[in-house]
Amino acid sequence: MNPFLYMLCLTLCSFFLFGCKSVNTIKPSDTLSKKAFIEDVRVVTDPFLQSRAKVLGINETLTEGGFLKIQVELENLTPRTKHVEYLFEWFDKDGNLIPSTTRSYRVRELLGRETIFLQAVSPTDQASDFRLKMIRARR
Questions:
Q1: Which pLDDT tens digit goes with each residue over 76-93?
Q2: CA-CA 20 to 30 A from 99: which of 11, 77, 117, 128?
Q3: Looking at the 3D structure of the chain, how many domains does it have?
Q4: What is the per-residue pLDDT for 23?
Q5: What is the CATH classification number for the domain harbouring 91?
């Protein structure tokens, strides 16, 4: 057998055998895990926002002074920018509403498919629970 032909066959066979054993270096473009939506009775929304923005998570912690700190992760489910008005209400251990000096809605903008965090700290260390109200922002 011709040495050139022999080397050509050997090279092609090695490409065939070892080419199938190569490591796949291609990854999916979306490597983030999918988050589940949380249905929480402490979050109240209007019908418009119910299908357009979802709560992904709620974190509760206490500050060094004993105040309740809340962080809510909110996702815009649409490709369009949405404006949301939100208000945190605070309750004591008996379920009574705690009066607050900042009892007005705040406005946040959510870009299309954006995830944001809404944060608030209770006005007193007597707060043990909260309610988040969200409505479509009036223009």
A1: 999 999 999 999 999 999
A2: 117
A3: 1
A4: 57
A5: 2.60.40.3230
